[in-house]
Amino acid sequence: MGKSFSQPAALSTTHTHYCPGCTHGIVHRLVAEAIDDLGIREKTVGIAPVGCAVLAYNYFNCDFQEAAHGRAPAMATGIKRVRPDLMVFTYQGDGDLASIGMGEIIHAANRGEKFTTIFINNAIYGMTGGQMAPTTMPGQRATTAPMGRDTAETGMPIRMANLLGELVTPGYITRQAVLKPQQVNKAKKAIRQAFQYQLENRCFSFVEVVSTCPTNWGMTPVDALKWAEDTLLPYYELGDYKVPE
Amino acid sequence: MGKSFSQPAALSTTHTHYCPGCTHGIVHRLVAEAIDDLGIREKTVGIAPVGCAVLAYNYFNCDFQEAAHGRAPAMATGIKRVRPDLMVFTYQGDGDLASIGMGEIIHAANRGEKFTTIFINNAIYGMTGGQMAPTTMPGQRATTAPMGRDTAETGMPIRMANLLGELVTPGYITRQAVLKPQQVNKAKKAIRQAFQYQLENRCFSFVEVVSTCPTNWGMTPVDALKWAEDTLLPYYELGDYKVPE
Amino acid sequence: MQTEIKFAGFGGQGILLSAKLLAYAAMKQGSFVAWIPSYGPEMRGGTAYCTVVISDRLIGSPIIKNPTHLVAMNRPSLEKFEQDVKPGGIIFINSSLIPVQSQRTDVTQLVVPVNDIAIEAGSVRAANIVALSAFAAKSKLVDLALLKECVKEEFAAKPKIIPLNMDAFDRG
Amino acid sequence: MQTEIKFAGFGGQGILLSAKLLAYAAMKQGSFVAWIPSYGPEMRGGTAYCTVVISDRLIGSPIIKNPTHLVAMNRPSLEKFEQDVKPGGIIFINSSLIPVQSQRTDVTQLVVPVNDIAIEAGSVRAANIVALSAFAAKSKLVDLALLKECVKEEFAAKPKIIPLNMDAFDRG
Amino acid sequence: MAFQHIIDDERCKGCGLCVNFCPKNVLEITDKVNAKGHFPVHQARPEDCIKCSICCIMCPDVAITIVETQDA
Amino acid sequence: MAFQHIIDDERCKGCGLCVNFCPKNVLEITDKVNAKGHFPVHQARPEDCIKCSICCIMCPDVAITIVETQDA
Amino acid sequence: MAKVLMKGNEAIGEAAIRAGCKNYFAYPITPQSEVAEYLSKRLPEEGGVFLQGESEVAVGYMIFGAAGAGERVMTTSSSPGISLMSEALSYITAAQCPAVFVNIMRGGPGLGGILPSQGDYFQAVKGGGHGDYHLLVMAPDGVQEAVEMTMQAFTLAEKYRNPVMILGDGLIGQMMEPVEFPDDLKTEPTNKDDWATNGMAHRKSKKRNLVKSLFLDPAALNNNNLVLKAKYEQMKKEEVQYELYNADTDYQVLITSYGTMSRVCRTAIDLLKEQGIEVAMLRPKTLFPFPEKQVFDAAGKDSCKAVISIEMSMGQMVEDVERCVKGRRPVEFYGECGGEIPSPEKIIEIIKGLL
Amino acid sequence: MAKVLMKGNEAIGEAAIRAGCKNYFAYPITPQSEVAEYLSKRLPEEGGVFLQGESEVAVGYMIFGAAGAGERVMTTSSSPGISLMSEALSYITAAQCPAVFVNIMRGGPGLGGILPSQGDYFQAVKGGGHGDYHLLVMAPDGVQEAVEMTMQAFTLAEKYRNPVMILGDGLIGQMMEPVEFPDDLKTEPTNKDDWATNGMAHRKSKKRNLVKSLFLDPAALNNNNLVLKAKYEQMKKEEVQYELYNADTDYQVLITSYGTMSRVCRTAIDLLKEQGIEVAMLRPKTLFPFPEKQVFDAAGKDSCKAVISIEMSMGQMVEDVERCVKGRRPVEFYGECGGEIPSPEKIIEIIKGLL
Ligand SMILES: Cc1ncc(C[n+]2csc(CCOP(=O)(O)OP(=O)(O)O)c2C)c(N)n1
Ligand SMILES: Cc1ncc(C[n+]2csc(CCOP(=O)(O)OP(=O)(O)O)c2C)c(N)n1
Ligand code: SF4
Ligand code: SF4
Ligand code: SF4
Ligand code: SF4
């Protein structure tokens, strides 16, 4: 039952700065594989967020722009509108997309901008040192919620895929995870599908990926996967929230 | 069957600058009546938006702050957090709340801030001269959509009450209208209820009011009511989208 | 040599348009022109006004306190601006809406019931054109034939109402 | 008179803490002190370092290229910084992780297998305390008893590990 | 007890909403301009008025009020 | 045809995800540090490896590859 | 091409199209919404891109994205809207992307008013955003100049790979004047293959392009700042534009003024001349780079007793004037900034007060 | 109270509490996130309000709302975050609300870097937002001064009903130094009954209060600007703070420098003195109001050959220095702004180059 496995061409060989066991790396690979599969590397422009993935432009083998915190969807809109022939994707964390970037992602999705967003939901701010994110779970500790998130003070975690699914404009909105091999394979299909819709100029496409941040969760990478499985997945249900007719 | 009717005390006697037949005036009165009913005028702080209602502070008899375009919910958060004993409400148009202010309203609602938002949905930018709003209907003409809103370019109208209803944090989210007397009476109850929930420190409360803009719709006030009834209500369904347990 | 004409009246009386047409004709005659609207608060209801500057050299300050002439389409505007007009200027008075005349003796008063004339011509909405042509005829600021051309051009989009306005123009 | 001590090692070796404790003790002795961490890019993995400045007057530039002493907890940091140390200074070498010594002859080398000692004391995590006390003893920058007090204070929150650290301190 | 139906000419902007909703067809727009340049509404058929306050409810400018009067 | 299972010591950050998911318990973390200060993984029981590529799939750093080899 | 009578706002929109810019993103705000309204009709005719963004913050980044992809792009706004673009302006400049920003100033601070003002000089010239950067800032004094500067702006933005700002005011936006669109101001877009993210497939070199502003290495960041600084030094050498008015006389006072305000000063100078009083004006047409040497020289003329900066503000450009005059002459200031533009009579009174 | 050893960021947080400020809204950003982290623990203990806003834009208006309601409130951020508050700063100043903003500067422009910088001088001092307004800007040179200035900031903000900005840099935020919290810097909040929206019921006078910045009438808007201007003139008279170092000597060069950079200059001056070279420094502690007259005077000393402004920027404060020196002496500049702070040795080399 052997199968070969090698580094995708759309991924550079640079070693990433991500912490050991951080799933950012897995998702990077899945995106690169989708780009390879569709043979679109030379017409793809990626947009790096401000977050741990800010250096994503070092890890992909295609044109890249680096956005300001939260504004990647607006930049993608700018690029895609003036160059509809390019393939554009944003890669954003949950502080970036769900906190400061809420307005930009909702409006881009609602206008039906023809780009793809990969949304890494790790329930925390990684790069800046573990502050609370809109996606942080009730009771989960963060450096700005030392006693754990108090929902009476800061409300319940925001489920972006559900929220975007509520918009009337057609789009592809799905939530995936990379906590175990089967999920990784499904996530890969979803990401490929998202780019496929863009290639067909069909609609806005959005793949939320439930991920881990072992460092700021203060867990081993393996424990982080388990915690995410047990704590995040029941609240962040996997599946498609919208598919274009 | 006679009943008496007089000017609410929370409303100043100043003549408004609103165009003839503009329903902003009706909603102003309903808010003032709710404030009177609950006897909270002296501890109420209103927040005026940037829009036709920017001068609202001249029309109410209570403390007022004037926000920047779209930021009223952030200001309300600031006031309510440092002075929970005050009653705080924002009064916002659809450009203000649904376009530039999308991030602020969603996060305030999601944190469950204990203030009340009155949202005037008139499907257009009034003050600046009839530009397209996120709530503008498909095909509806606007000065920045001279051929009518093209949903292929700008997507479908955003239904704020539906969107906020999707958030998990408890709240009171309802959509009302003031296009005929019965609706006005229901809207009045809803607005009173919204303030009641705040008074009980229960939750965030949000009343969307489907309104008219005869001037920028290019219709007589009476025709505007009919157009809204026929065109807006089928898409913007009236009713409660969330009520706190 | 520079001439300034202030047009004033209710919003909706077509003041901005008549002013624009005058400026346009003057431009075609090779003069320097500027059309300065009043925008902002005072627009909302009440009196709207607008100034046209016609000059034989580069126009400096577009801010005109004392115009050479005034075209007053309603009473408030006459009362508001009559004192500003430079001596020797023309004050045009739409007598259909302005029962009075100006107290000033150092100016020429041109009194025309433009609404009534326009109604005869077919629609009160042409009142601004009547006023324009009447004022232009008197002030001789621009060649009438040329001005008429400009009016025609302006309404090229809505051909139906051209005759109306042409008629209105001639009556002016 | 001003002394600068650079602490360097892997992130996670407790360098910032030992440096802080030294600065804290010096402060209690009435000296002017500053604790300057390295933050930013170089932090992510690799070598972390931090400088303590102890002076008898207001401290000027907190930017120290050439420290008086160096406490090197791992090999990369020794190699990276040994040349910077001022002549006559002390270079502290954690021989548990650094098999080599410095080539320099114009400095005093203090070689201590702090990890091993810490392990004897009960946990490798106390290595930084061992290093601190050993260095302090040698450099005489601060009174040892006082320093020990500071260590106790620091761990007041986690009483269990106080004895461990006290023990580590004495072994240092 | 009796009620009086009062229209404030200066507040009224002549939008006609009240005219449109009056169940008794009591109201009509006048042709005399007020200070703000609007044509206010007036009670054309006051005797038909049942003081139901619907006009008040729809008036955006609180131009219509109904007050209780002592004398029947 | 045959496959070869290759681990890049320098890319590996020793996170152990592969170890955790390997169905055949082939992998173990070594105790020798690499240049970046990580303890890379190695094939402790290479003979058990069925080249299912699950480790590759879970590796965040593309440190494991499986290449097809000519010789069986 | 024949003269046409146009509103400043519409003329600016048309000028962009004539300059070869087919991409426009903006958010409505008085007194410049007519630019968007005009382009929402015109651009589709031209096969161009018109999009009303959800906010000025978003628009700033739509511009960044489009510019980074190598296309000519413009936005227009007014004072508060420009404040919301501060971060984007800093980013776009740091990433060295060409783009054109138009600010039709209104009264401030805060919501202020919607009438003409010049209260955003500091913001435009010193940089409203964070970090060491400058915009190339041009200030038209009428509709024709607004057209010409808008057209030049695209060429300059690409020459320097730096955003250019047109700093107008509500009067210039709302007023109608005759305009011509000089064909010779239309230039071919520069080749952006060596830096823009226009798609590797499009380029000979298959190396990828990055548009970014993050430089974690201090040396690299400092170097990026030196690169920017070098561009600003070059602008100071090559791009300074200004106009001297009545300066060949033995003027007693030198006025510095720009934009709408300078037109009023021009009239005041003419009227003073009739009264036998000679006053000159130096009108910066580029606010950055500022005509530093020219102000120094003009102030130094023997007949000149004083310099006065006249602005529709509480005193902003006057600081640059003071800096350049280097104490040679006393530097005075007069300004109003409610929206009421000071009249020639007022200016004359002020000037006479200096004699 | 005994000295404690604290990080600048934490000390600033504690200082706010000691000054009687119990309300803090902020959004995380390196290198100042420790302020938020510290206060997220401390404020609940004090019964105060800690809230992480969704963005700096929102935080700016949370501050506006809280300040408008009459409560003491503070936020902290770093360069890009401050750019996003530009509009709010303009609004808050226009509406005359007191509030304290702390900018722990990092390298820019754009995303730049996270190391110390002084690239936001223009933004802080000239006003990053639109319209005619100023912040009162204080620049500490260490942790103790950061504490004292933060404490004074609340008093000054209320005295002038104007926002005060503490302009620090990453080093001051990250460094630990011994600090004391002077009790005498804690003041009672001023009575805000005559303007704040603190609820009519709370006030004797039952007239309602409005917090706003819209003035549609030009005269009213101009007047609001004159009110603000009058406050800035008063600040120039009453609030200028600065330090002269080694100025009682016959110095050959005058350095102007502030914040972290000034500490390096101080060491350079000491070392030069040992070499028999006298150099003085004027360190503005308030950047606005700027010590204008003091710079003019210090530059004029006979022994002084040149003035040099040394900054962690590409040259910003130097423009104010030039303006104030009025041509009395040549004004030079040296700066780096990648995050690497220039060493005393480098400064010495630069200074010697001037002799
Ligand atoms: C305007 C602005 N605000 C704040 C920051 C600081 N900042 C950088 S990354 C980040 C959040 C990162 O968290 P997330 O988006 O969840 O991505 P992750 O690091 O978890 O992958 C913040 C707040 C910034 N760079 N710019
Ligand atoms: C930052 C900023 N952007 C834009 C504007 C201009 N502006 C004022 S009101 C308005 C929209 C008003 O429309 P809406 O919110 O729907 O309220 P309405 O007038 O319809 O009641 C806009 C865009 C502004 N004042 N500030
Ligand atoms: S413009 Fe529209 S919304 Fe505004 S007052 Fe007039 S009718 Fe009402
Ligand atoms: S009260 Fe009723 S009946 Fe009387 S006028 Fe009003 S709507 Fe008509
Ligand atoms: S290929 Fe499969 S069997 Fe082999 S090591 Fe990887 S996971 Fe284990
Ligand atoms: S998953 Fe990859 S990085 Fe992690 S231990 Fe295995 S090979 Fe190394």
Please provide a brief summary of the model:
The complex is a heterooctamer, with two copies of chain A (245 residues), two copies of chain C (172 residues), two copies of chain E (72 residues) and two copies of chain G (355 residues). With 172 residues, chain C is α/β, with parallel strands linked by helices.
Report the biggest beta sheet of chain C as strand number plus sense, adding barrel if it closes: 6 strands, mixed
Kindly report the average pLDDT value of chain E: 92
Overall morphology of chain E: globular
Largest sheet of chain E, described in full? 2 strands, antiparallel
Helix content of chain C: 25-40%
Quote the distance from N terminus to C terminus of chain E: 5 Å
- Tally of helical segments of chain C: 6
What Rg of chain E, in angstroms, do the CA atoms define? Answer: 12 Å
Question: How is this structure best described in words?
Answer:
The complex is a heterooctamer, with two copies of chain A (245 residues), two copies of chain C (172 residues), two copies of chain E (72 residues) and two copies of chain G (355 residues). Chain A is of the alpha/beta class and 245 residues long. Chain A has helices at residues 24-38, 72-82, 94-100, 102-111, 151-154, 160-165, 181-199, 214-217, 221-232; strands at 44-48, 63-66, 87-93, 116-121, 171-177, 204-210, 239-242. Chain A is globular, with a radius of gyration of 17 Å. Chain E is an alpha+beta fold and 72 residues long. Chain E is built from two helices and four strands. The longest helix of chain E has 5 residues, at 17-21. The radius of gyration of chain E is 12 Å and the shape is globular. The termini of chain E are close together. Chain G starts with a strand and ends with a helix. Chain G has a five-stranded mixed β-sheet with strand order 4-5-7-6-13, with helices on both faces. A five-stranded mixed β-sheet of chain G has the order 10-12-11-14-15, sandwiched between helices. At the G-H interface, helix 4, helix 5, helix 6, helix 9 and helix 12 of G face helix 4, helix 5, helix 6, helix 9 and helix 12 of H. The structure holds thiamine diphosphate (TPP) (2 copies) and iron/sulfur cluster (4 copies).
